From TrEMBL:
It is found in: Membrane. It comes from Bradyrhizobium frederickii. It comes from the Bacteria. Gene3D superfamilies: 1.10.3730.20. Keywords: Membrane, Transmembrane, Transmembrane helix. This is DMT family transporter. PANTHER family: EAMA DOMAIN-CONTAINING PROTEIN, INNER MEMBRANE TRANSPORTER.
């Protein structure tokens, strides 16, 4: 890849990542109406394992050693297992999709705090100001959305989801950066498929309604999210500091809110639009080289 292509990729990847990641909340809302959450995730990950096996078979990447396999499995269970499981369970237990979109909006603050100590990344005062600005934008976007669920399990799942995606991205950066993404992702998806299958057999009745809505949403989530957005996320983790990557999650609630407006007719008032602008400004501040 020449310099111009690298520059174009560096500019396009964050935008595409935010767009793809935001569709995950919309797609999850569709699938959990037709299947138990862990059962749906086990099916989704089994499909992804098949796709990644084909990709790895064609590319024939260098496989990690036993330590790399173990690290990849841990990263997969954090990034995919507890995060996706927490989000799906939260939505299935009537936690509003808007609140689930707020979870990654809170991630940058937690990521920056941990990265500052664990990875030795220096977070400047200006970047801290940008992170706080983004948090304020997230609150403004979701200010008039319902924030109640019908079960304490849903709230617990939301908190688990936030913590796991934060720890997972940091763990991936620290221990898995040198592992070929095709081999590493295949190991991660095998591990998390087993994780979800065990959870489904232990805690669910494994109900699935194979409606057109479910199949289409499942296909999108498996291909565009588990292959596309995760591949972009790991590429960004390799090429940027943890704080800069995490700041992109501030844009997810804004983009999700816009998608919900277009798909479900959810209104965007002036305060929410101002919050979107604040999120965009926060990403600019965190990522700008001062």
């Amino acid at each position: 890849m020449n310099h111009n292509q690298e520059a174009l990729t560096a500019r396009a990847a964050p935008i595409l990542f935010v767009l793809l990641w935001s569709t995950g909340f919309i797609g999850t809302k569709y699938v959990v109406n037709n299947a138990d959450p862990l059962t749906y995730l086990a099916i989704r990950m089994a499909i992804v394992v098949g796709l990644m096996a084909i990709i790895a078979g064609l590319a024939r990447p260098k496989w990690p050693d036993s330590a790399g396999i173990a690290h990849s499995a841990v990263a997969g269970i954090l990034v995919h297992g507890f995060y996706l499981g927490g989000t799906a369970i939260a939505i299935a237990h009537s936690i509003p999709a808007g609140l689930s979109a707020l979870i990654p909006g809170l991630q940058p603050i937690l990521t920056s705090t941990i990265a500052n100590r664990w990875l030795g990344e220096k977070v400047t005062p200006v970047q801290w100001a940008g992170l706080v600005l983004g948090l304020g934008g997230v609150v403004m976007i979701l200010h008039n959305r319902p924030m109640t669920g019908d079960a304490g399990l849903g709230w617990l799942a939301s908190v688990v989801s936030l913590i796991s995606i934060t720890l997972g991205t940091l763990y991936q950066r620290r221990y898995c950066n040198q592992i070929d993404w095709r081999a590493g992702n295949l190991v991660q998806y095998v591990a998390v498929t087993i994780f979800f299958a065990i959870g489904a057999f232990l805690f669910e009745e494994r109900v699935v309604h194979w409606t057109r809505e479910f199949v289409l949403a499942l296909a999108w989530l498996a291909v565009a999210l588990s292959i596309g957005s995760i591949g972009l996320l790991y590429w960004l983790i390799r090429h940027a500091a943890a704080t800069s990557v995490a700041s992109l999650f501030y844009l997810v609630p804004a983009v999700t809110a816009l998608m919900a407006y277009l798909l479900f007719g959810e209104e965007l008032d002036a305060l929410a639009i101002a919050g979107m602008a604040m999120c965009a400004a926060a990403v600019f501040v965190v990522n700008r080289r001062f």
